[in-house]
């Protein structure tokens, strides 16, 4: 590489020194056991199945084998769905005992629930590990924040993705997150007030504070597989290329998995598969388009059944549940073979041979002509005291938006173009003087400079926008301006300007 | 199963079966995974996924000149895919990031911070920087992995360095996440 400017040269030197050190450090890591695949699927199916498995929380159905678990007869978990929604085909299967979490990694989450789980009171307590970059940042964890103080500690209530009630509280200088269902704010406050932080970074509610039948059902020291994919379950997935899918999981019933199920989705009691069961749904909004996630769960014959569907109806998922039947060993293996037979399918697009995607804007050559001042419409609303949403339309016709949440000294921003998330960023709310411009998810400026008036952005297409600063309420005079650009690509130049257009600060661009 | 490694890119991967290929290649890919994913746990996941795909197509992959380059390509593709981003959003949703790193690699704090920033760059830039500075790949070799021109690789490297310069000069806690 040649002709590096001073900034680049510095970074180049840093990277040249640091790269070999990183390589050396990781060369001492033990090679983890290779997880041999049990089935062959297209990439998107793998991703969807992974999300299904993760969301399901059936991971909690675990790795902690004991004398009451499968023993030597995993075939008792062999089931299939006979009434699959139209258009969905068998895509993959999971053999019992085939999944294992990373060795030595624990959940770091304490989960408490009552005998009524997956209904009733449920709360999980997640601590900050203390590792830089892995701390809980409250602003990134929810919406509709309400700051408060609990037992002299900073705290904030918020709403979670699927309607959980969240409560962040600072304990010993580290943030702890409580995620709950069916616990009112007063009771949640009492639980949070007693939370203690352990030397490993996990956090717990002392037994004396557990009331109304709450008991510990999953410990922070349990293998992470108890929270996610464990070996003791069977799975069978059906999907179509349009994003509709259905995944059946069968496992031993466990209090922890019931609690995780209840924490994940808002459930109601109903008749499922001819007996008592639960059904619920929520919108997984970080995907595009948003996914409707629907869950049906029931227990029968000493087993726990769980179906998670993406973009399927109540009628379809209940019909699917009703049709779940055991599968003879020979049939199960034949189905396994069938999913495996997809391996050589010409339909499968080998990774690395897919057509190259169009280069993102950030890779465009630098613009060399005259810049054009373009008026970009900007709308700013404050849905709550700690949230601000910016939106507008770029000259390219793309609709852009940035959702900003701030809590105490942290801020999180979620940019989108035409509704498609463009990454996210989070960090401290206040920025150092002279370093107020941040790039690029989204491009933003947060400043306390009263002479500043706006953010001026020159794109790689030669368009120049000026975006006025807006107040961030309750932050002691901080003002903000943001802009989302597609593809995560940075602008050619970003400047903080005053009312007369004088440049107060420039962010190094790509030119 | 025999691998014909004849381009000098990855010496030592000759005459091995898949298990050997995995054992020898795992650590070589882990650093790339670490930079792309931002943590050792997710790096392991990324490496495992890529090797799983290689395993399924081993009869084909094993005949490639440089199978490990193919694995790296899969890792980069997976890191950028919507499905993986979605999955990692779910991980974030349930606060998995608070779990300790797998096998706790001893990485210097300064390096950890630097590569954390790299991991938050647009993935093409992060991949280019990881391949260039951690794996000592040439821009031509990186262009093959990223399936782009040499000029584009240079652009990725340059933009990545500029972004890093900006972020290193700014508040150290600032973190962006393109997952």
C-alpha termini separation of chain A: 16 Å
Main β-sheet of chain A: number of strands, strand sense, barrel status? 7 strands, antiparallel
Oligomer: heterodimer
Strand portion of chain B: under 5%
Major pleated sheet of chain B: none
Strand order of the largest sheet of chain A: 2-12-13-17-16-15-14
Radius of gyration of chain B: 16 Å
Count of runs of 4 or more consecutive helical residues of chain A: 6
Percent helix range of chain B: 55-70%
Distance between the termini of chain B: 36 Å
Total DSSP E strands of chain B:
1
Mean pLDDT of chain B: 71
CA radius of gyration of chain A? 26 Å
Overall SS class of chain A = alpha+beta
SS elements, strand count of chain A = 33
Structural class of chain B: mainly alpha
Brief account:
Chain A is an alpha+beta fold. In chain A, 15% of the residues lie in helices and 37% in strands.
Describe the structure.
The complex is a heterodimer of chains A (511) and B (179). Chain A has helices at 6-27, 43-56, 185-193, 255-264, 314-322, 329-341; strands at 79-81, 89-94, 109-113, 122-126, 143-150, 153-159, 165-171, 174-181, 196-197, 203-204, 215-218, 233-239, 245-251, 267-272, 275-284, 291-300, 303-310, 324-326, 372-373, 377-384, 387-393, 399-407, 410-417, 420-421, 424-428, 437-438, 443-447, 452-458, 463-468, 470-471, 479-483, 493-498, 503-507. Chain A is of the alpha+beta class and 511 residues long. In chain A, a hairpin with a 4-residue loop joins strand 28 and strand 29 (463-468). Chain A is globular. Chain B is mainly alpha-helical and 179 residues long. In chain B, helix 1 (18-37) crosses helix 6 and helix 1 packs across helix 7. Chain B contains nine helices and one strand. The model of chain B is unreliable at 1-15, 82-103 and 171-179 (pLDDT under 50). Classes of the chains: A alpha+beta (511), B mainly alpha (179). At the A-B interface, helix 1, helix 2, strand 25 and strand 26 of A face helix 1, helix 2, helix 4, helix 5 and helix 6 of B. Strand 25 of chain A pairs antiparallel with strand 1 of chain B, so a sheet runs across the interface.
């Amino acid at each position: 590489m040649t002709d590096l400017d001073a900034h680049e040269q510095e970074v180049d030197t840093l990277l040249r020194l640091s790269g070999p050190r990183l390589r050396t450090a990781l060369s001492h890591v033990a090679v983890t056991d290779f997880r041999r695949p049990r089935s062959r699927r297209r990439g998107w199916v793998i991703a969807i199945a992974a999300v299904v498995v993760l969301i399901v929380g059936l991971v909690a159905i675990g790795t902690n084998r004991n004398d009451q678990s499968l023993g030597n007869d995993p075939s008792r978990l062999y089931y299939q769905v006979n009434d699959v929604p139209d258009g969905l085909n068998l895509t993959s299967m999971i053999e019992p005992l085939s999944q294992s979490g990373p060795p030595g990694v624990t959940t770091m989450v304490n989960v408490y629930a009552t005998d009524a789980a997956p209904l009733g009171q449920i709360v999980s307590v997640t601590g900050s590990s203390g590792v830089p970059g892995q701390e809980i940042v409250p602003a990134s964890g929810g919406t509709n924040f309400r700051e408060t103080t609990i037992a002299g500690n900073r705290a904030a209530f918020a709403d979670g993705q699927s309607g959980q009630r969240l409560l962040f509280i600072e304990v010993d200088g580290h943030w702890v997150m409580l995620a709950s269902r069916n616990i009112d704010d007063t009771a949640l406050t009492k639980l949070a007030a007693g939370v203690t932080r352990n030397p490993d970074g996990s956090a717990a509610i002392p037994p004396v504070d557990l009331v109304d039948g709450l008991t510990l059902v999953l410990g922070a020291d349990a293998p992470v597989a108890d929270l996610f994919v464990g070996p003791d379950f069977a799975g069978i997935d059906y999907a179509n290329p349009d994003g509709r899918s259905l995944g059946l999981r069968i496992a031993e019933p466990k209090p922890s998995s019931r609690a995780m199920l209840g924490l994940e989705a808002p459930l109601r009691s109903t008749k499922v598969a001819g007996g008592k069961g639960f059904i619920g749904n929520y919108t997984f909004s970080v995907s595009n388009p948003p996914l409707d996630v629907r869950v049906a769960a029931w227990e029968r014959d000493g087993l726990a059944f769980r179906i998670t569907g993406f973009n399927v109806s109540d009628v379809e998922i209940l019909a699917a549940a009703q049709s779940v039947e055991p599968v003879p060993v020979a049939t199960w293996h034949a189905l396994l073979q069938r999913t495996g037979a997809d391996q050589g399918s010409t339909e499968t697009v080998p990774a690395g041979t897919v057509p190259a995607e169009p280069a993102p804007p950030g890779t465009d050559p630098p613009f060399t002509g005259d810049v054009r001042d373009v008026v970009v419409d900007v709308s700013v609303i404050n849905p709550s005291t700690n949230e601000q949403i910016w939106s507008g339309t770029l000259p390219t016709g793309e609709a852009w938006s940035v959702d900003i949440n701030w809590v105490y000294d942290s801020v999180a921003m979620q940019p989108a173009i035409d509704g498609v998330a463009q990454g996210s960023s989070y960090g401290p709310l206040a920025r150092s003087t002279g370093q107020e411009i941040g790039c690029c998810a989204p491009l933003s400026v947060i400043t306390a400079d009263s002479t500043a008036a706006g953010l001026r952005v020159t794109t790689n297409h030669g368009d120049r926008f000026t975006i006025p600063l807006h107040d961030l309420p309750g932050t002691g005079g901080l003002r903000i301006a943001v802009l989302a650009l597609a593809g995560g690509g940075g602008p050619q130049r970003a400047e903080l300007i005053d009312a007369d257009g004088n440049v107060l600060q420039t962010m190094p661009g790509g030119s | 199963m025999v691998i014909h490694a004849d381009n000098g890119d990855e010496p030592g991967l000759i005459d091995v079966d898949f298990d050997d290929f995995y054992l020898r290649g795992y650590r070589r890919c882990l650093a790339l995974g670490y930079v792309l994913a931002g943590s050792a746990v997710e790096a392991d996941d990324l490496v495992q996924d890529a090797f799983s795909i290689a395993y399924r197509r081993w009869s084909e992959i094993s005949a490639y000149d440089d199978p490990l380059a193919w694995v790296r390509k899969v890792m980069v593709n997976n890191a950028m895919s919507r499905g993986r981003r979605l999955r990692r959003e779910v991980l974030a949703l349930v606060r998995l990031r608070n779990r300790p790193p797998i096998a706790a690699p001893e990485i210097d704090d300064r390096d950890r911070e630097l590569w954390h920033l790299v991991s938050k760059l647009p993935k093409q830039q992060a991949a280019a920087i990881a391949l260039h500075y951690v794996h000592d790949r040439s821009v031509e070799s990186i262009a093959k992995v990223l399936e782009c021109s040499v000029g584009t690789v240079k652009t990725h490297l340059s933009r990545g360095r500029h972004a890093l310069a900006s972020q290193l000069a700014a508040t150290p806690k600032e973190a962006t996440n393109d997952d």
